[in-house]
Amino acid sequence: MSRRPEHLAPPELFYDETEARKYTQNSRMIDIQNQMCRRAIELLLLPENTTHLLLDIGCGSGLSGSVIKEYEHEWIGIDISSAMLGVALEREVGGDLILGDMGQGMPFKAGTFDGAISISALQWLCNADKNSHDPPKRLYKFFSTLFSCLSRSARAVFQFYPENSEQIELITTQATKAGFYGGVVVDFPNSTKAKKYFLVLMTGGATVLPRALSVNETDSVVPYASRREQMKKAKGKYLKNSKDWIIEKKERRRKQGKKVSEDSKYTGRRRCGRF
């Protein structure tokens, strides 16, 4: 039996309540997800010192959304698994959540988002889980509606697990037909375990693709930045998600007139099942 999840069941069935909780409580999966999300955000090349609205496609239980918030961006997530979204709600991940099938298109107004990311979801569209499913048509529907809801200077970055070169060609062909420019960036191409595929799509015309990471060229590439290393660069600021950082952020929101919960001895304390 194949070990690829998309061969075992449709995503809305595979990611049931048991799988959703297992995925969200596995420290190794969380670390990998966080690393890939940080790399995807790097590849978006967003202007610095500005808050952006990002779309998280296949947001699951909100692990990527938590990373997006670390970068102080806002986000909206869409996922086909109600169980995954249920866990995200329990974790109070801080983004708006929508239940939806990416193969049926993105239900957003034109120009809504400044960028989009997706971690480990795109390859599911290459399968026909129902008799009515036609992978090329579903991919085109997805990419064309995504193109519409992005601003004309935005990028979309997908980390995905292609099964073969035919799947890569299928995906890139439909993305190009929908109006996107771009291509696939393969990080650590000579490593069996570290190798990662990122589809980098652009709405504003063709530009040079970002350089892939390589274990042989560590001096000339940007490595995955650890969370603590990012915070070291933010001199004079509190460590993100620390108690002081949370209190400061809540105070800013109070000044903006937003409703914020009262501070207590539990503010900033880690809780069971949350990350």
From TrEMBL:
Q: Which UniProt keywords apply?
A: Cytoplasm, Methyltransferase, Nucleus, S-adenosyl-L-methionine, Transferase
Q: What is this protein called?
A: 18S rRNA (guanine-N(7))-methyltransferase
One of the protein's GO biological processes: rRNA (guanine-N7)-methylation
| GO CC aspect terms | cytoplasm; nucleolus
Q: Which SUPFAM superfamilies match?
A: S-adenosyl-L-methionine-dependent methyltransferases
Principal localization? Answer: cytoplasm
The similarity comment for this entry is: Belongs to the class I-like SAM-binding methyltransferase superfamily. BUD23/WBSCR22 family.
What the entry lists under InterPro entries is as follows: Bud23-like (IPR039769), Bud23_C (IPR022238), Methyltransf_11 (IPR013216), SAM-dependent_MTases_sf (IPR029063)
Catalyzed reactions = a guanosine in 18S rRNA + S-adenosyl-L-methionine = an N(7)-methylguanosine in 18S rRNA + S-adenosyl-L-homocysteine
Subcellular location(s) per record? Cytoplasm; Nucleus
The record describes its quaternary structure and partners as: Heterodimer with TRMT112; this heterodimerization is necessary for the metabolic stability and activity of the catalytic subunit BUD23. Interacts with GRIP1.
